[in-house]
TrEMBL record:
GO annotation (BP), single: cell wall organization
Keywords: Acyltransferase, Cell shape, Cell wall biogenesis/degradation, Lipoprotein, Peptidoglycan synthesis, Signal, Transferase
Record: active site: H309 (proton donor/acceptor), C327 (nucleophile)
Name the record gives this protein: Lipoprotein-anchoring transpeptidase ErfK/SrfK
Pathway: Cell wall biogenesis; peptidoglycan biosynthesis; Glycan biosynthesis
Organism: Saccharopolyspora hordei
Presence of the UniProt keyword Lipoprotein in the record: yes
Signal peptide region: 1-24
CC per GO annotation: extracellular region
Amino acid sequence: MRPLWTVLAGTLAAVLLLSGCGSPAPTERAPAGPVARVSFEPGPDARDVNPTAPVRVRVERGRLDEVELTNEDGKQVPGELAPDGRSWKATTELGYGKTYTWSGSATGDDGKQVSVEGSFTTLQPERTVRATINPTDGAEVGVAMPISVKFDEPVEDKAAVQRALTVQTSVPVEGAWAWLNDKQVDWRPKEYWPAHTRVSVSAKLYGVPYGGGAYGRADLTTDFTIGREQIVKAAVGTHRMVVVRDGQQVASYPASYGEENDPGRNTPNGTYIIMEKNPVEIMDNPRYGYRDVRKTWAARFSNHGEFIHENEENAAALGKVNNSHGCINLSAADAKAYYDSALIGDPVEVTGSASSMPPQYDVYDWLLSWDQWTAKSAL
């Protein structure tokens, strides 16, 4: 048997040999990567991006040297580099159904450069829907004029559309949007507009999902002005049409309203607006046996067929008898005077009639109470 001290000595020698004499072998380290980190919005390879979504590139621990965003045709998207060089954003909306590609570079705080690269694709709608807005730019309109946005197709997601609509006024005005049907949303004030109010409307409809695969085709804007306050007071039983301007009566014309004993010929109660003006209007009413009747100085106030117009053939009834087919008849001179003073959007208040107009024609905004109106909002 070997002595114990011999075994220990052998072990000690082995340890000395391993931990050895001299320096340890050098360890190799991988070179440090660039510290700059680039991020994108939308993310890399994103699909079905809404073209109105924010489009940005950012860098952490570095600065952007240059950034370009181009579509598949090589057209560059306008953009803006932040003053600190750490972000870039597109300054215009993108197109539907397009692929956009990033290019450029950033330099990190360590002096090392990294690439700005990647791509994403915007959504392709099943269809885009056209809209129009009224009043048009630069118009001067009456104090009852509603703002109307109409669509070529029915809108399913009315709330999404309504959130894209804004109204700004030069003086405070309480008002609300209401959907009159699936293709029309109107804004009207609770009371008549204050005279001389300036109004700006923005409809940011591009990129808005209407539902059913449809999206807004384009944004709309309009800037218009409310004119002086002029109101027609059409009290049927008085046989006169009174015009009140800025709170003062300026005219009282002998008139003939609709035949009171025939509901089909009444001038119905309600608050209307002047919708259009024509120096000559050709009128037809086959139910009552007339066609191609030419009347002058015609101001339409209802799509049911009511006008304020000249009717010299009915001169004997003016101021005495109500015998028209629903229109407000005036003499030629009075009809011309009123026609010249009227603005589209002026209110016409008919009272004292045997019947009232149902709220079903395309301009019935003022036939609804305020509670009825606000109940038609989608929000």
